[in-house]
Design a protein that fits this description.
Structural class: mainly alpha
Helix content: 55-70%
CATH class: Mainly Alpha
CATH architecture: Up-down Bundle
Number of helices: 12
Shape: globular
Radius of gyration: 19 Å
CATH superfamily: Heme oxygenase-like
Oligomer: single chain
Amino acid sequence: MANPRRWNGDHALNAITPNAMTQNAAKPDGMTAFSRGNSAPLNSAEELEAALRHIGAVRYHNLHPFHRLLHGGKLNKGQVQAWALNRYFYQSTIPIKDAVVISRFRDRATRLEWRHRIEDHDGDVGTEGGIERWLKLTEGLGLDSAYVESTEGILPATRFAVEAYVHFVRDRSPLEAIASSLTELFAPNLHEERISGMLAHYDFVNPDIMSYFSRRLTQAPRDAGFALDYVKAHARTPAEREAVCNALLFKTNVLWVQLDALYHAYVEGHIPPGAFVPKEMPKEK
């Protein structure tokens, strides 16, 4: 029988569930999990931008209960390790996703603009990239880098979600591929919250291992600005603007479901067979 008391470390989580923490969030009329549904058509670039920002306000994963726990110091070290380990698979797949995006464009200028995203994550000869910074985080948390890079310990849901993202940019229109990156519009505030919260609450976290997030404070706005300008210029019909919004909704689902899986496994305690098991496990009283 499911345990009605959910634990993170020594703290009972009677009231903290994904539904409880999001049921009062504002919801635009007609929006479903996957589309704007019967919401009014978007007849201009300005209406498109407003709709995209509204989606971020109500659907970005900063609202997820797992992030509230992570940033509020409510997780133990093992749970933070599990988050970093699983998130590595997402981070290390981003340059692969971006290479697929580049392959969709005959336009050289777009390819040149998008190319730096790969360098941001992969780095270059003699230059540290985002993947190396993430490994600095996992190593600082006490995880073996070879184990992290193998991705053998991640949750199945993490793999399914991240691979679905790559398939999306491969199979949908180039416009939708770019639109799916627009969660970066909302990332800087999340990174700031993560940096301040984790440094304040966890004695095993220091500024050096948080360098990935501090670097993204400047990278993400640059990338998001280009993507937003692109979709506003190239989504010329209500149907195309609808597709842009739905692509962003898809990406918010990709991010959200990874946190659902982490919550289920490492807060509620239902770790699937073969996945990473922290040395420090939640303890029920």
